Every structure is written in structure tokens, then in C-alpha cells.
Amino acid sequence: MPELNELAPVARPMGAFFTLTMIFIIAEYAYARLAHHDEDHDLRETAASVGVAIGNLAIRTLEGGLAALPFVLLHQVRLFDIPLDSAWSWVALFLGTEFAYYWFHRASHRVRWLWATHAVHHSATHFNLSAAIRLGWTGQLTGAFVFFLPLAWIGFPPVAIGAMLSAGLLYQFFLHTALPIRLGPLESILNTPAHHRVHHSCNEECLDKNYGSVLIVFDRLFGTFAAPPRHEPLRFGLKGRDASNNPVKIALGEWRLLLRDAARVRGVRAKLKVLFGAP
Questions:
Q1: HSE of 18 in the Cβ direction (CA atoms, 13 Å)?
Q2: Which residues of 171-186 are buried (b: 16+ CB within 10 A; e: fewer)?
Q3: pTM exceeds 0.85 for this model
Q4: Torsion angle, CA of 172/174/176/177, rounded to 10 degrees?
Q5: How many domains does the chain have?
Q6: What is the separation of C-alpha 83 from the centre of its chain, rounded to a whole number of angstroms?
Q7: Domain range for 136
Q8: What does the pLDDT look like over 123-167, one tens digit per residue?
């Protein structure tokens, strides 16, 4: 097991990010209370989200730099050298990361093996900033990083890929605000809180929509964009699943159901269909 001083470079930025998110979560809740608009908050659910986030932080700290290893190895046999010494190379990396993220996120909704981790993020029944920190504990186990490996193989430096992904996750944190923020003409290009509310809702016409990270353009290009329904309010949480405020059940509950269903069927082909079919 790594020594604590080896984990410190990983733990420090993650701990700082966790602290920053907590400040904004508290500020959003305080504003909602002062504005008498706190129906989008539930303190027990928020506490459960914090518990899930602490578990995620602990696991990622223990993993250390293991997640970066495949990127470093593949970068050794890269097709091109792409120096990030111009604005155009950063734009290319941004667009490549956005494209990879779109397909990773789409697959996370359509492949049950990936959904078992991603379902954690959709388990909150209230949409606010605390929902943003509900992140699964098993992302490395499922191989989610595979979607971004081509960027390293093409020639983008692994550190830059990680930085771009981190910037995208920071942007996405603020997409979870309960505040009714609209960005005008930018709504057609950027992923916004309004678009992301649709993504998190379990209304039938909103399921599996709006997968973008910073941009919403790939959803528009590939037919997965949806506006909020006009004649019904948005509902949140996992469709067909009971809500829980137990962080362990939230983080591992979908895995229990997945493994149960796989154990009930006979034959390798049937088991693989359960594991890698649609949720």
C-alpha cells in the first residue's frame, strides 16, 4: 500500500476541490432558504451525497496515479507529437476530450456494466449542487478511462488530457445548480443547468438525453438532445429504484442488482448480455 507521503500529491488537489464544492453547496442552500425556495433541497439526501463523495475521495486517493498509467504507456507509442504551444492545439484537445466524453457518457447510460457506477450520480431525488458530488466508487474497475486513451495514442500529453478532463468536471459541477439560470444564445452551444436538469430527470421523454460535458453540440449532432417537457414537471432519481440515504447502498446498490441478475441466468452468453446489455 502506498505511503501517505506518496499519496499527498493526489490527495491535496482532490481535497481542495472537495472543500470548494462544499462551500458552494452550503452557499446554494443558504440562498435557497433566504429566498424561501428550498423545495429542491433535502438535508438528509445532501448528507448522503457528502458520504458518497467522501468514499469516492478515499478510493481515488488510494488509487494514487494508477489511473494515469495506461495513458503514459500508450503515449510512448503515440502516432504524432502534438506540442501544446498554440491555441489551436488546445482547441483540438478540448474538442477531442468533449467528443470522447460524449461517447463515454452515452455508453454509461446504455451499457449496464458502466451504468452500475454511473447510476450513483443519478440517484439523488433533488437536483442541486450536492447531486454533483454523488460519484461512483468503481469507475476504474469498469474501465471508463478506455474512452479517453485514443487521445494519448494520437499524441496529446497525458497530463494535459487529465487537466482538460478536470476542467470539464469542474464546469459540470455548476451545471447541477438548483437556481433557474439561463445563458441565452449560448444555450444552443454549451451544456447549461437547464440542459443538465433534463439529463438528470427520470421523465420518460428525458431519459438518456443531453450527454455533453461543456458542449451540447454533439447531442444536437447525434440526436440525443432534449428540451424540458412542456406539460409536466421534471422528476429526479433512478426510475424503478427506491431512493436511499445510505452512502454504501447508493454506491454499490446497482452492482448488487447487476450481479444478482447475472447469477440468475444460465450460460456465458446470457450472463454477458446481462452485464453488457442495456440497463
A1: 20
A2: ebbbbbbbeeeeeeee
A3: yes
A4: -170
A5: 1
A6: 28
A7: 4-276
A8: 999 999 999 999 999 988 898 999 999 999 999 999 999 999 999
